[in-house]
Amino acid sequence: MIPMIMRVDIRNKDQKGVWLFFPVILLWIIAFAFLIALLPLVLVAALVTLPRGPGVRLLLLYPVLLAAVFALSGLRVDVASHRNNKVFISFD
User: Fold this and answer.
1) pTM of structure
2) What is the rounded (10 degree) CA torsion for 28, 89, 20, 91?
């Protein structure tokens, strides 16, 4: 599933901090529209360069990008410094 919200929590040593929510679904909609618009150009470039080698990598570009986006779902990053400052990032 594509992550729809990115949650960021930034706290200092006094446990005062800020929670931010970013609707990354809007970013994915724009990115996918851009990728669909570029698909004919990528296919032509892949067919032209297929005999020399990089065409195969161009054809794998879209599946690899989709796999990376789908793998972000459920990602949680929790970083603490030696001064008790904390940053938490979550893709939900």
Assistant:
1) 0.72
2) 30
Are 21 and 7 in contact by the 8 Å Cβ rule? The answer is yes
Residues 6 or more apart in contact with residue 37 via CB below 8 angstroms: none
Region 39-63 average pLDDT: 87
Residue 12's pLDDT band, with cuts at 50, 70 and 90, is confident
Kindly tell me the number of DSSP H helices and DSSP E strands found in the chain. Answer: 3, 4
Closest CA to 9 of 82, 80, 92, 87: 87
C-alpha 65/C-alpha 71 separation (Å) is 10
Chain centre to alpha carbon of residue 79: 19
What would you measure as the largest C-alpha separation in the chain, in angstroms?
61
